C-alpha cells in the first residue's frame, strides 16, 4: 500500500539513522529528525519502511 503520510512522534534521540537511511525524506534539525517538505514518499517507500523499522525508539509513523 502506498504511503500517504509520514511523521515523527516525540522522543527522537537524534541518532541520525533515518536521515542516513533515507536522506530524501528525513533530515536532522537541531536535536530532532524531521520530514522534509515536499518529499516524494512513493519513490522512497522502501527506505521509509526501513527507517521506520530501524528507528531505535520506534517513533517514525506512516499512514
Ligand atoms: S531514527 Fe528515530 S531516533 Fe534516530 S534520528 Fe530518526 S527519528 Fe530520531
Structural class: alpha+beta
> Helix and strand succession?
EHEEHE
Q: Which bin fits the share of residues in helices?
A: 10-25%
Q: What's the CATH architecture name?
A: 2-Layer Sandwich
Distance between the termini: 9 Å
Largest sheet: 2 strands, antiparallel
Counting DSSP E segments of at least 2 residues, the number of strands comes to: 4
The overall average pLDDT, rounded, is 97
Identify every distinct bound molecule in the structure, by name, code or SMILES. iron/sulfur cluster
Descriptive terms for the model:
alpha+beta, two-stranded antiparallel sheet, 63 residues, 24% helix
What report would you give on this structure?
- It contains 2 helices and 4 strands.
- The strands form 2 sheets. Strands 1-4 form a two-stranded antiparallel ribbon. Strands 2-3 form a two-stranded antiparallel sheet.
- Helix content is 24%, strand content 22%.
- It has 63 residues and is an alpha+beta fold.
- It has a single domain (6-62), classed as Alpha-Beta Plaits, CATH 3.30.70.20.
- Strand 2 and strand 3 form a beta hairpin.
- The model has no long low-confidence stretch (mean pLDDT 97).
- Iron/sulfur cluster binds at residues 8, 12-18, 33, 55-57, 59-60.
Brief digest:
This protein is of the alpha+beta class and about 60 residues long. About 25% of the residues lie in helices and about 20% in strands. The chain has helices at about 15-20, 45-55, and strands at about 5-10, 25-30, 30-35, 60.
Lay out the secondary structure:
Layout: E1 6-8, H1 17-21, E2 26-29, E3 32-35, H2 45-54, E4 60-62
Antiparallel strand pairs: 1-4, 2-3
The structure holds iron/sulfur cluster.
Iron/sulfur cluster binds next to helix 1.
Amino acid at each position: 500500500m502506498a504511503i500517504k503520510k509520514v511523521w515523527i512522534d516525540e522522543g527522537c534521540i537524534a541518532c541520525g539513522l533515518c536521515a542516513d537511511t533515507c536522506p530524501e525524506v528525513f533530515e536532522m534539525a537541531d536535536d530532532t529528525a524531521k520530514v522534509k517538505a515536499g518529499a516524494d514518499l512513493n519513490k522512497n517507500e522502501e527506505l521509509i519502511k526501513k527507517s521506520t523499522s530501524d528507528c531505535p525508539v520506534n517513533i517514525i509513523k506512516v499512514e
